[in-house]
User: What shape does this take?
Amino acid sequence: MFSRETHPHAGQTLFSAKRRHPLRKRSNRRRTRARLEQLERRDLLAVTFQFNFANDGNFGFNDPMKGADRKAAMQSTADELGSWFNHTATISVDVFNHNTGDIGAFAVAYFDESNPPNDGFYAGIPQQKTLGGADGNGATADGAITVIWENAGPLSVVWELGDDVNNGEIDFQSLVIHELTHLMGFASDVQENGADLWDSGLGNPSVWQPFDQFLSDNAGSRFINPANQHRINVPAWQSAATGGTADNTGLFFNGTNAVAANGGNPVPIYSPGTWEEGSSGSHIRIIDPTYTDATHLMVPFIRDGQVARRWNPVEAAMMRDIGYDIVMPEPAILLTPSGGSTTVTEAGGTDTFDVQLTVRPPSDVQVTIAAADSSEVSVNNPTTLTFTPVNWNSPQTVTLTGVDDSDTDGDVVSIVTASIVVAQSDPMYGSAAAAELTVSTTDNDMPLNVVTTVFDENDANPSDGTGVSLREAIQWANSHPGGDIITINVSAMFLTLGEIEITETLSIVGNGAANTRIHANNTSRIFKVTGGDLSLKDLKMQKGATTVGEIGEGGGAIQFLSSGSLLLDTVQFVNNLTAASSSAGGAVYVGSGGSLMAVNSVFQSNVTLGDNASGGAVFVEGGTFTIQNTIFLGNRTEGIDAGGGAVAADFSSGQISGTLMQDNLTRGEVSAGGAIFAHLTKIDILDSAIAYNGTEGQNSDGRGIYAFYGPVAITNSTISGNKTQGQFASGGGIALTNADQAMVLTHVTLTKNMTEGQDSTGGGLFFRGSPVNVR
Assistant: This one.
């Protein structure tokens, strides 16, 4: 049996646990027929304690006024303890009342033992059943507890069933868990002289509790030797059993789990100078102030007021050592958002969440609430919460408020943390991790990556105007590096404030060329790109223009001066122009080693008007280009020495595939290549048609294609209906001059190409100083 006794000690109420056994001889061992018990069905693994309350008077559990509450408190406390076991079993416990102090205890506990072997570590019936063994005692109760409701000692007993345990009151729940823990095997069977409880004879093969296998001296030597029929080292035991009067003396528990949980040290076991039957050897020693009733449940003494109600990690580890799978809830902070999530708004919208603890602390715990990003969310009062042993699981509500800003940053997700204030909290929660709550702050600023007005505005705050203009959206993107995406939600935008500069990687997405138009009304270029990549999709760029004074400024719609890439996906360029000399690329100019990819696009009626302004639609200088499934229709150059009615390239390399070039034209003298002009450029043309293009000026060779000092390969393509009209303008279809590599024509159709001017030769093909391979 285990008892909790009352002793006067420094003005406090204390208890000790003593285990008393009736005399049992081997010849009197109970031999009941084993049977399997029908276990209660449970969704979760747990041990169920089934209490059988004795009808032994009108007091205690039978008190007419208090009895029902006491029974309920005992059952709920036992249910909590049972949930710590990752096992399924039902343990029957007889419960008795006692109302005098003749036992000298608060409670005594007993567990049944039957049919032990001749030697070994043999568990009591509750532990056997919990670990899946047979029911060795049949219908007999597995154990018993007697509660002493009144005490004859110098201090009267005042019981507190709930959480609000004050000074002068004994914690009933702590008492119940302590005694049931003993009943489940936290106990020693070794007597003071080293004998077991079955009269096996001192030093003979003996029977012990599983707990006893881990008892050792201060050097770590265990007393019981399983290899020698579980005999005990009697002299060593007798020396240590009453030797625990100082640190590092007496008995210790050195199970692997317990030592690890105790910082690598064995756990000191209660072994006072005078042996206390039922208490010595079965509790954690309290000489060291590390082990107190505030932090450990299985110590031999208890004070009045708040004490531990759960196993310390060391005690849980000791239970694992004796064979149990323990799954105790860890001390932690629990955050529960209202409605399942937490969202605030920049307009001052609020939301709430609840805070509580997962485990009852012996004393107060303080929790502080803080926002990781105070520019998005603020914590309203209270910012500090105090949880007590009474209100630890009562939710406390915290209110959060969104913080306004002028940034159009979209909805922002941030973190609010709840942290233990260690210096103001019970040590149980000293290592509890901070809990985090995800909070979304809804932006109330107008999103600047969505164009919402047709007007060309440049307001300090877009909400001051008619909406977000294309210019404002791009300026916002320039100030937010990282590859933004602008979506256009209006049908037409008219530029009135000049070209728009793009300095960072950007994507602009429209709603189709028929529904999304950027119109400069021939007053300025549309985009000037000086940094990053630019991607345009599903839109039309119309009437972008440079003036006659902008000499050398190419690109009527886009001037791409970045070393990055320009992607045109399903984009139409219509009626764009450059007016000054040396202003190449009526629609698009790509320089500075940049790259161009045009896919599924249309270039129509674009023009360069100045001299030396090549590329009626596109000019690429010192870069690369890829043109796929694109149409060039009716583009032209007007000036002298302005080659390439559709496309011109200089010191570049490129590929054209699946593309139609038709009705493109150069009009000025020495303006070669009605469709394509390539200078020192490698060019491959595949699966394309170059038709009805022309040159009108003198010395303007190659109405379809003109290549100078660069290799050309044409495959599976048709070149037809092209012609030159000026004097000395040779090569109606293709003209190739001074290439260092052969032109390769593979499955190419040359038909109806012609030259009309005086001294103009090669209606289909003209080459000078260059080999041609036809396949």
User: Anything to note?
Assistant: The CA atoms of residues 224 and 232 lie 4 Å apart. The helical segments are 67-82, 125-130, 172-183, 234-241, 256-261, 313-321, 470-478. The radius of gyration is 46 Å.
